[in-house]
Amino acid sequence: MNDVPAAVRENNHARKINSLKKKMAQISSIKKKEREGLLNEANALVATLENAVIKKNKKQKVKIEEEEEEEEAGLAEVLVAAHATSNEPISSPKSKPKKKKTAQDDESDRMLASCTVQRFAGCSVPSKLSL
Asked: What's the domain range around 65?
């Protein structure tokens, strides 16, 4: 190494570094293109899977809606048949018969109204007395 002048050694060293930089850039661009290709392929697969899932969900939703319509139609037929055989009117399951208010209920309401917030813990309203 001592026989090679320093300027030649520096020149060779710079040339090797430049060639290595070029190779690294080429490798990087090739890998980048490969990565982009793989990424595009993966995105295409994901898109097709999403479309398949969406179509499957739509089919299931339509099937469920059809089943519900069939159940409602069957229930309506049963209710109509039951109503036709009995003379009682069909009442809504949400409606409850109203209870008539008694004098005892009025008295309980007055006692509750007379209790103040401070005395509420000590105020007891008698339960309905049996007559």
From this structure: 6-85
